[in-house]
Amino acid sequence: AIKTDDFRLDGFYSNKRLLLFDEAWNDLDLENYNSALLLANELKEYETLDQGIREIKRKVELRNLFGRIYSGLGNSKKAIDNYLLALEILNNSFEKDLENENTILNNLALAYNDIGETQLANKYIDLANSREEKINQDPIYLVKQYNNKASITLDEKDFLENANRAYEIFENSDPKNKNSNNFVNTINILGGFYLKKGNFENDELKKK
Length: 208
Prior knowledge:
The protein has 208 residues and is mostly helical.
């Protein structure tokens, strides 16, 4: 960890750390996973022993970053290890951060789903849903949870229940919400299901 007793240097290293995070997330968005991984490893040098919420958030963000990078590289085991470490950091913190915890739970669920661990995936997405309901009263914020749940379930009834709940939220909300990415994702999830189902039923008819 980088340590200094000079407040000016502290400010410099703090700004440098933020810039490195920005670069790493940008590389991740561009799918430059190896470059993002190099930056993430560099960011480990900026961690301190401080137990304040700001440092906790940075440590959790870094583990989440590692998790996202390893998911992109197809290494789900390392992704899961980092998400679990992020949860451990949050659980050991004196100050609770439900928003960050919810993000990690979502990512953990998706990572477990990637390796076929559907029971664990459902466990963590359900935890994420319950956290989200505590954090946000606006149902629009629950759409992502319902879409994630729909995406990982293998049960058709469960899929339709969650995907339709997401769609109904938009139908009963301000029309401007339909300009959001969440609404596009909801339509894509439902549309993809019915398209696949329609193609399957057509194939079955042809066989007859």
